[in-house]
Amino acid sequence: MSEIETESEKTRAEVAAYLRDLADQLEGGSEFTLELGGRQMQVDPTDSVTFKLEGESDPAESGTESKESIEFELVWWREAHSDEVEAQQQQETGDSAGSE
Length: 100
Description:
- There is one protein chain.
- The protein is of the alpha+beta class.
- Helix content is 34%, strand content 30%.
- The chain has helices spanning 12-28, 82-98, and strands at 32-36, 39-43, 50-59, 66-75.
- The strands form 2 sheets. A two-stranded antiparallel sheet has the order 1-2.
- It is extended, with a radius of gyration of 19 Å.
- The two termini are 27 Å apart.
- The relative contact order is 0.12.
- The model has no long low-confidence stretch (mean pLDDT 82).
């Protein structure tokens, strides 16, 4: 399983441009490269995805400001390749054998 996560300060215009590019790639319907903070990951979403959107507002203890955020998440399930399933099964077998 591959995972990348990054956080950086960007202008609203930079974020909008990144999201537009991501939307264009998503709409293209084929595998594409997700680039974040100089790291890359290949993604290939299925035609149907679950779209999660979360908005939050947390007042600071000082009472003079609040932290607000929006989080987007796309989730999809894809059948694992047989070699991935076999590796997972071997790992689980090895884990249970070592715990006995």
